[in-house]
Design brief:
mainly alpha, 114 residues
Length: 114
Amino acid sequence: MPRYHEVVRMGTVLLAAAALSAIAIPIVVGYAALQGRPKNFSREMYWTFFILTGAAALALGIVAQLTSISDSWHTFMHYSCGILSFLLFGLAAGCLVGIFAYRGRIFSKLSEPK
């Protein structure tokens, strides 16, 4: 059985990794939107994914807050819902950036080098 300080240290490392991932996800999604990728996406699709992932992140965040830490299974559910909520919030932020950074097919063809 791991000691309490080892569990806290592991949780801190996981939270730091999730925080860095949640910062990197909007950068990657915004850069892809600036390049006009994926080709079958439009501003409306970025808007739709922003709403869906934001709602899912909010729901998982509420579940994580309401889950009591009484045994190991509830502790696992609490941390996994919290980290997944954090990552989905990063994806929602990336889709929000994608709404404003999206270049359609016309703009991406004009900016290509000749």
